[in-house]
């Protein structure tokens, strides 16, 4: 390198993030825009994990996937999926090489922060009927006040029938709302710390404000407004208040995704974390149906609350499927796991110029600079994290470079500012090399999150390249 100029030497030795404008071709921009339009249909249709699973099953069925049951024989070329309690899905293909070289695993989660209804949620106070909620996942409480909310979920009735509920999404539907104190009377509220000014017990949504009537007059019964609401729910769905105990109902932001900014590069929606990676992982699987490698796509539940329970990644379902499939193909399950490789496809914290104090700019993901690779996450001194081995990190980087994928390296923020985790550590504990990789997000966990269409498309290309490699 002795004969290189300083500029040439700098280009050879220094590392500089590229933007999509520097890396993308004209066809890349067109493909990214088209891909984002398809993703918008998914994100608008899948505001809960159950809805995401239902949408995914329809996609998989269109590509010839069949339901998998434990104990069934599995053959080369099979396309199979397993639905776990309606809230988790594992889809997999058996490639030309079988499973002796392990699986390529893409693991995402399909739950997002929201407001769940309590078991006995409905109460009346001074002529207004409210729903009590219990927030799910990490939220800033104040962000959920005075926005339009939709009610989604399922109710199981005593006869075993399951009722799907969705109110607030269709044209002409009513919406729901959590009120806030008017500024004229908020002198004391304004002096409270942000974390205490909006207590969780106060996140109660307005449901109804008129009483049940008889012969055109308000009924002379206690809680007539609550009775009016329950009567309407019963008329629509056959639901009684007792049925709400065995329900999974939640409030999510009402409305559809949309372009943000005059250039339409950014896309705003509820639930980008982590359905943006779930969709790009799923479509990468569908892009590689007839490849050499066997591929698993995991869409998990409960990541926002610790990945516990029967539908979270701390369970053994994915491992059980790997072991059962390996035995069916006369392969050693332990060897298959050891040779498997995983991308934990979860979103990254995008650098926000409005709040630079919590980011290490040199080590942060930037909007429109591609999919973000995180060697480790966790909090403080790398606690509660998977720390990807350097060898596997290098392997993934080489795969992306060969495929011409726009990518960047990232951490979650400054060391002592906080942190966050993914499902990676629950997979790597089974002797599976795992790396966190995903789409950078602005306003993560807010009711309205932002991503770049170029980063979304880069994630899809990255996951597809990994499946092929």
In short:
By secondary structure, the protein is of the alpha/beta class. The chain has helices at residues 6-13, 20-23, 26-45, 49-62, 187-191, 194-197, 224-237, 272-287, 317-328, 333-339, 390-402, 424-428, 453-468, and strands spanning 66-67, 79-84, 88-93, 103-109, 114-125, 128-136, 149-156, 162-167, 205-208, 213-214, 217-218, 247-253, 258-260, 266-269, 294-300, 341-345, 348-349, 371-374, 378-379, 407-409, 419-420, 433-438, 440-441, 449-452. It is 29% helix and 25% strand.
Give a written overview of the molecule.
- This protein has 13 helices and 24 strands.
- The protein has helices at residues 6-13, 20-23, 26-45, 49-62, 187-191, 194-197, 224-237, 272-287, 317-328, 333-339, 390-402, 424-428, 453-468; strands at residues 66-67, 79-84, 88-93, 103-109, 114-125, 128-136, 149-156, 162-167, 205-208, 213-214, 217-218, 247-253, 258-260, 266-269, 294-300, 341-345, 348-349, 371-374, 378-379, 407-409, 419-420, 433-438, 440-441, 449-452.
- It folds into two domains: 14-112 and 270-468, Aminopeptidase (3-Layer(aba) Sandwich), CATH 3.40.630; 114-253, Aminopeptidase i, Domain 2, CATH 2.30.250.
- The strands form six sheets. It has a nine-stranded mixed beta sheet with strand order 1-2-3-15-4-16-22-18-20, with helices on both faces. The chain has a six-stranded antiparallel beta sheet with strand order 8-7-12-5-6-9. The protein has a three-stranded antiparallel beta sheet with strand order 13-14-24.
- The model has no long low-confidence stretch (mean pLDDT 95).
- The radius of gyration is 24 Å and the shape is globular.
- α3 (26-45) crosses α13 and α9 (317-328) crosses α10.
- The chain is of the alpha/beta class and 469 residues long.
């Amino acid at each position: 390198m002795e004969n290189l100029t300083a500029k040439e030497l700098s280009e050879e030795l220094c590392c500089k993030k590229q933007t999509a404008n520097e890396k993308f071709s004209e066809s890349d921009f067109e493909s990214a825009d088209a891909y984002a339009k398809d993703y918008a249909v998914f994100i608008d249709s899948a505001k809960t994990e159950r809805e995401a699973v239902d949408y995914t099953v329809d996609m998989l069925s269109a590509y010839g996937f069949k339901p998998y049951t434990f104990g069934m024989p599995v053959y080369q070329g099979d396309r199979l999926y397993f639905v776990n309690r309606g809230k988790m899905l594992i889809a997999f293909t058996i490639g030309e090489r079988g499973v002796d070289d392990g699986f390529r695993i893409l693991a995402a989660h399909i739950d997002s922060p929201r407001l769940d209804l309590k078991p006995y949620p409905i109460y009346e106070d001074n002529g207004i009927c409210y729903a009590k909620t219990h927030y799910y996942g990490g939220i800033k409480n104040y962000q959920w006040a005075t926005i339009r909310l939709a009610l989604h979920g399922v109710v199981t009735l005593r006869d075993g029938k399951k009722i799907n509920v969705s109110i607030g999404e269709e044209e002409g539907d009513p919406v729901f709302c959590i009120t806030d104190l008017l500024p004229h009377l908020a002198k004391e509220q304004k002096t409270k710390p942000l974390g205490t000014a909006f207590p969780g017990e106060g996140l109660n949504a307005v449901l109804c404000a008129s009483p049940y009537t008889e012969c055109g007059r308000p009924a002379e019964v206690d809680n007539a407004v609550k009775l009016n609401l329950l009567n309407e729910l019963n008329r629509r769905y056959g639901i009684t208040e007792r049925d709400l105990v065995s329900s999974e109902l939640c409030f999510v932001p009402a409305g559809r995704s949309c372009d943000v900014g005059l250039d339409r590069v950014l896309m705003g929606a509820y639930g980008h974390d982590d359905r943006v990676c779930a969709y790009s992982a799923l479509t990468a699987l569908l892009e590689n149906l007839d490849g050499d490698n066997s591929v698993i796509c995991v869409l998990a539940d409960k990541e926002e609350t610790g990945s516990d329970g029967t539908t979270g990644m701390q369970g053994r379902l994915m491992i059980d499927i790997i072991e059962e499939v390996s035995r069916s193909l006369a392969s050693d399950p332990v060897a298959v796991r050891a040779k498997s490789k995983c991308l934990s496809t979860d979103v990254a914290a995008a650098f926000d110029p409005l709040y630079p104090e919590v980011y290490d700019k040199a080590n942060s993901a930037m909007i429109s600079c591609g999919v973000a690779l995180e060697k480790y996450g966790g909090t403080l001194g790398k606690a509660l994290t998977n720390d990807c081995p350097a060898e596997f990190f290098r392997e993934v980087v080489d795969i992306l470079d060969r495929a011409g994928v726009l990518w960047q390296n990232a951490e979650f923020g400054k060391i002592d500012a906080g942190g966050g985790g993914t499902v990676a550590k629950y997979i790597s504990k089974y002797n599976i090399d795992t790396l966190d990789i995903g789409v950078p997000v602005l306003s993560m966990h807010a009711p309205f999150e932002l991503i770049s269409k170029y980063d979304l498309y880069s994630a899809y290309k990255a996951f597809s390249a990994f499946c092929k490699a």
